[in-house]
Write a structure and sequence with these properties.
Strand content: 35-45%
Radius of gyration: 15 Å
Strand order of the largest sheet: 1-8-3-6
Largest sheet: 4 strands, antiparallel
Number of strands: 9
CATH class: Mainly Beta
Low-confidence stretches: none
Order of helices and strands: EEEEEEEEEH
Shape: globular
Structural class: mainly beta
Mean pLDDT: 93
Number of helices: 1
CATH topology: Jelly Rolls
Helix content: under 10%
Number of domains: 1
Amino acid sequence: MNTITELGVAIPPFMPEKAHVMTITIEVPPGDAGAPPHRHSGPVFGYVLEGELIFELEGEPERVVTAGQAFWEPGGDVIHYQAANNSDEMPVRFVAVMVCVPGEPMLTLVEPDELSARRDRRAPRPANARF
């Protein structure tokens, strides 16, 4: 008999019309900050395969997601500040399932002017923040 383990439940605020879904693996080298602040055109669901991921979305404090844990983000206008490696010794590897808007890039970098204009939406940074 199969064993099913629920890793997370999310109700995305929207699903893009005529969306397509992309499943990818991402490996972030030891000590690497990952992609700069960005956003996705639709919701993203992820699962950490190995290592520890520093994960931070606009309006939420950064948190560490470890191997065997799931995460998600709503996409759209929400800025994804961090998907960084929390270790200086081993890579972090995760699977991301992205719901994408047709004809739009799956990842768009946020310009410094916009980051500055929205700085009040970022949760306070911990004193020991790595990135």
